[in-house]
Write a structure and sequence with these properties.
It holds the Pfam family YjbR. By secondary structure, this protein is α+β, with helices and mostly antiparallel strands. The chain has one domain: Aspartate Aminotransferase, domain 1, CATH 3.90.1150. It has four helices and six strands.
């Protein structure tokens, strides 16, 4: 089961990923960013632990239909974000894949120069 420490480690394992606490009114909300853009949002002290992740809209709908632990993003664009409950009901690998997909979606939206600096597998040097 992915706990708060494992979630933080998984998010920070990506090239260029940083953790920030940008909400003064909610100082316990962690955001994980790449290139200044959020790819994961969580409160690591919450029980149950949840994480909001960017997702392709069609995949987001399929995940919600298949897994009750996946719901539209809380206080986010519900078409592009899912909030995932990390209660142990979902396989760890599925959660890790959703985190990676979120990171990849954000990196893909960055300028090419930034993608190259990140040595992102989706961006190969000529």
């Amino acid at each position: 089961m992915i706990d708060a420490n494992a979630l933080r480690a998984a998010c920070l394992d990506f090239n260029g990923a940083v953790e920030e606490f940008p909400f003064p009114r909610h100082p316990d909300v962690s955001t994980f960013k790449v290139g200044g853009k959020i790819f994961a949002l969580t409160t690591l002290t919450d029980a149950p632990l949840t994480v909001s992740l960017k997702c392709d809209p069609e995949l987001a709908e399929r995940l919600r239909a298949t897994h009750p632990e996946v719901v539209p993003g809380y206080h986010l664009n519900k078409r592009h974000w899912n909030t995932v409950s990390l209660t142990g009901a979902l396989p760890d690998q599925l959660i890790l894949d959703m985190i990676e997909d979120s990171y990849d979606l954000v990196v893909a939206s960055l300028p090419r120069a930034q993608r190259l600096l990140l040595d992102w597998p989706g961006e190969r040097r000529p």
